[in-house]
Amino acid sequence: MTKKRIAVIGGGVSGLSSIKCCLEEGLEPVCFERTADIGGLWRFQENAEEGRASIYKSVIINTSKEMMCFSDYPIPDHYPNFMHNAQVLEYFRMYAKEFDLLKYIRFKTTVCTVKKRPDFSTSGQWEVVTESEGKKETDVFDGVMVCTGHHTNAYLPLESFPGIEKFKGQYFHSRHYKNPEGFAGKRVIIIGIGNSGVDLAVEISHTAKQVFLSTRRGTWLLNRVGDNGYPFDGLLSNRLKHFMSKICGQSLANMYLERRMNQRFDHEMFGLKPKHRAKNIALTE
């Protein structure tokens, strides 16, 4: 019986794991990666590349290695609990090598279009047009897995800032931030209190004259390290905590978590207490 062919779009972490899953299920994966290397978001470049997510030089992942590793390929013991982006990328390279995934990837190949074939209702097949070195190619696949991530395009709503066209200073999205060197002696405002906003505020504060962090609402802040030096996500996401939250309900679980976070600093005193409860948060530094 002929193996079903699957197109995997993107050679980042999702693309690599999708290739491996296809192989385990007896499928024939063909991965298309528009750049010359794997890694996607986690491959740092000095300049933001069009069509690819971009990170700054100092990025450290906010998920512990114990919680983020592949179940069948643990991260080496000597790696830190929270890894620098270069170590994250190296781990993905080791994963690709261990399971011999690179031979299924067509590098420097852009997917132009994906559409259903005329007989899709009976065949379930897709027509995929790709381009490599100026040459287009059309191929047919039994399935398509889109692994392109969701941090590629910057959202910069300048219409929300009346007078921005008269502003004489520099402004840009965090996608284009790489290091704090250009902010020495300057007054800087960072808009947004998500992971990137908090990261940049801390980093830039070491060189800038003054840094403001602007947010339209409060947020619950979790530090990476919990009791006794254990990663907080590991302490928070264990069977006992899950069992207790089922027994006690969301209200008591929220009270417990909020009390723990307020022991670090009083969110209300600093004007950071949000209207939403703690169980709605995303991990941040």
Automatic annotation (TrEMBL):
<keyword id="KW-0560">Oxidoreductase</keyword>
<keyword id="KW-0443">Lipid metabolism</keyword>
<dbReference type="InterPro" id="IPR000960">
    <property type="entry name" value="Flavin_mOase"/>
</dbReference>
<dbReference type="InterPro" id="IPR036188">
    <property type="entry name" value="FAD/NAD-bd_sf"/>
</dbReference>
<comment type="function">
    <text>Broad spectrum monooxygenase that catalyzes the oxygenation of a wide variety of nitrogen- and sulfur-containing compounds including xenobiotics. Catalyzes the S-oxygenation of hypotaurine to produce taurine, an organic osmolyte involved in cell volume regulation as well as a variety of cytoprotective and developmental processes.</text>
</comment>
<dbReference type="InterPro" id="IPR050346">
    <property type="entry name" value="FMO-like"/>
</dbReference>
<keyword id="KW-0597">Phosphoprotein</keyword>
<keyword id="KW-0274">FAD</keyword>
<keyword id="KW-0472">Membrane</keyword>
<keyword id="KW-1133">Transmembrane helix</keyword>
<keyword id="KW-0521">NADP</keyword>
<keyword id="KW-0503">Monooxygenase</keyword>
<keyword id="KW-0492">Microsome</keyword>
<dbReference type="InterPro" id="IPR020946">
    <property type="entry name" value="Flavin_mOase-like"/>
</dbReference>
<protein>
    <recommendedName>
        <fullName>Flavin-containing monooxygenase</fullName>
        <ecNumber>1.-.-.-</ecNumber>
    </recommendedName>
</protein>
<dbReference type="GO" id="GO:0006629">
    <property type="term" value="P:lipid metabolic process"/>
</dbReference>
<dbReference type="GO" id="GO:0050660">
    <property type="term" value="F:flavin adenine dinucleotide binding"/>
</dbReference>
<dbReference type="InterPro" id="IPR002257">
    <property type="entry name" value="Flavin_mOase_5"/>
</dbReference>
<comment type="similarity">
    <text>Belongs to the FMO family.</text>
</comment>
<dbReference type="GO" id="GO:0034899">
    <property type="term" value="F:trimethylamine monooxygenase activity"/>
</dbReference>
<dbReference type="GO" id="GO:0004499">
    <property type="term" value="F:N,N-dimethylaniline monooxygenase activity"/>
</dbReference>
<dbReference type="GO" id="GO:0050661">
    <property type="term" value="F:NADP binding"/>
</dbReference>
<keyword id="KW-0256">Endoplasmic reticulum</keyword>
<keyword id="KW-0488">Methylation</keyword>
<dbReference type="Pfam" id="PF00743">
    <property type="entry name" value="FMO-like"/>
</dbReference>
<comment type="function">
    <text>Acts as a Baeyer-Villiger monooxygenase on a broad range of substrates. Catalyzes the insertion of an oxygen atom into a carbon-carbon bond adjacent to a carbonyl, which converts ketones to esters. Active on diverse carbonyl compounds, whereas soft nucleophiles are mostly non- or poorly reactive. In contrast with other forms of FMO it is non- or poorly active on 'classical' substrates such as drugs, pesticides, and dietary components containing soft nucleophilic heteroatoms. Able to oxidize drug molecules bearing a carbonyl group on an aliphatic chain, such as nabumetone and pentoxifylline.</text>
</comment>
<keyword id="KW-0812">Transmembrane</keyword>
<dbReference type="GO" id="GO:0047822">
    <property type="term" value="F:hypotaurine monooxygenase activity"/>
</dbReference>
<dbReference type="GO" id="GO:0016174">
    <property type="term" value="F:NAD(P)H oxidase H2O2-forming activity"/>
</dbReference>
<keyword id="KW-0285">Flavoprotein</keyword>
<dbReference type="GO" id="GO:0005789">
    <property type="term" value="C:endoplasmic reticulum membrane"/>
</dbReference>
